[in-house]
Amino acid sequence: MTALLALEAVSKRFTRRATVEERVLSLLGRAVPPRTVHAVDGVSLAIGEGEVVGLVGESGCGKSTLGRIAAGLLAPDEGRALLCGETVAERRGGRVEKRTTAVQMVFQDPFASLNPRMKVGEAIAEGPLAHKLWPAAERAARVAETLADVGLDPSYAARFPHQFSGGQRARIGIARALAMNPRVVVADEAVAALDVSIQAQVLNTFLDLTARRGLALLFISHDLGVVGHLADRVAIMYLGRIVELGPTEAVFAAPAHPYTRGLLEAVPRLDRRRAGFHPVRGEIPSPLSPPAGCHFHPRCPHAMPRCRAEKPQPRRLGPGREVACHLDLA
Amino acid sequence: MTETRAAAQRPAALFWAEFAESRLALAGLAVFALAVFAAVFAPWLTPQDPYDQATLSLLDARLPPGTVGSAGYVHWLGTDAAGRDVFSAILWGLRTSLFVGGAAGAAALALGTMLGLAAAFFGGRVELLLMRIVDLQLSFPAILLALVLVASLGQGLAQVVTALVAAQYAYFARTVHGTALAERRKEYIEAASGIPLKPARILFRHLLPNCLPPLIVVATVQVANAIAIEATLSFLGVGLPVTEPSLGTLIANGFQFMLSGRYWISVYPGVALLIVIVSINLVGDRLRDVLNPRLRR
User: Fold this and answer.
1) Contact residues on chain B for A119, CB-CB shorter than 8 A
2) Yes or no: domain B95-281 corresponds to CATH 1.10.3720.10
3) Among the four residues A48, A199, B69, B86, which has the most C-beta atoms within 10 Å?
């Protein structure tokens, strides 16, 4: 399997501007609180043609930032994001310039991600027409076809986003991404904002479409249960690093990282209704000052002295399986 | 069901229905429309071309309102020192005032919007430079700036409009900048750059349309302000020349006769100016209420 989209040791840091108070303090030579967040810290991940990769983690673990790097909305500070060997996005004079249309993103918030003053048909046709993917004469027909694909009535093209429900808007967001005829789709919590009953419907439409077109999918979610159903491979992220990576069944059957174990135990299952509930203890630490060594050690039930000092490197467990842990749980 | 039907209406129809809920605003709009109509059709609505010196007779000078002049028609609002029919002069003056206000407002809108959008979109040094200039300018009263500019540019319609634009674009720039800063961080802008679309397209097709509501309100108020500033400049004698009088010139024209009891030469143009400015402001206030997102569902 050759990688279609490859993230090579990408890192992304966000630095907050110093407040006046902090500038005065640092001028006086006093210690100031850290202002840099390592949102993504040396992550490597490859996605093959037509493959569905699930990216799972708690909120604040950097999964959205990683998704934005993959989709070319952010340029990594270190490392490279490559699509078929070409850089996805470049920094140019302080702005990020995306170089390709072959990777598209579906956003989390179906309300904020659609321009409220643009008709749905216009929003869908804008990209393909700007990039000459559609002949201008076929515009109406192509918009109708795209809307029908996502299960919407073609007559909706003349309406504004505020006239739709959350589920319909999510479908519009999917239609906008698929209209660009991408090879990779990054879905950042694409259905998380919807009602549970609607989630399944929209998710099924989305997965059908990507599977039928053979698109690769990076599916970002905080819900390991959902990811378990649809992903070929799963990557578990904790505080900017990928801690475990592997084929979904293998990871679910024998999780090798204590964090993955904790997450799996938190997934509600019918056959375990009476079993005790042991979620991962504690809170995710502040990414402004992450713990030394293994980021997970303050919450890890198996933490050893080594974990506090040494950063665990990804270790191969089998074909396509990696874990970043000093323990040998598997 | 009613909710979906209401939502299915065109936004413009919805907007109008909400605007029309205020009788006062409707009255303001009607008065303003009447003023525009009267100004546009002044040559056909007035008994006299007040600036054609040949038709004026000094025998008619300073006639009180309601007097029949030598030309045989009633001067409903009296005549001025040169025997000019005040009613005719007001309609012609209104023409000039509205034109100056509209032209200056539109030009300031265009210039200020471009600068504010560019500052918000490009950020960094561009933003710093543009917005500091705007801040500096806003710290002076607009009338002072306009006065200095007109004094150095000289009299004339083009000069007055230029001075007004220079004095007022900053209000538009600041408004657009603030709105655009908030809109720029929204996900639909990110979605547009993720397609990817060209910056110019994102700027004009995505960012600008979403910055319009507060702009419309500011534009309305600034047109009224432009008319008022122009009237002030003309009253002070540095605005429009007597050959192209605006309402301000007319007020100045009759000011010296106020104390001799011939109030009408100044007061009626003043009342006309007041009515126009109040009507525009009524419309502007209502627009602000209707377009305020916090009041919308």
Assistant:
1) none
2) yes
3) B86
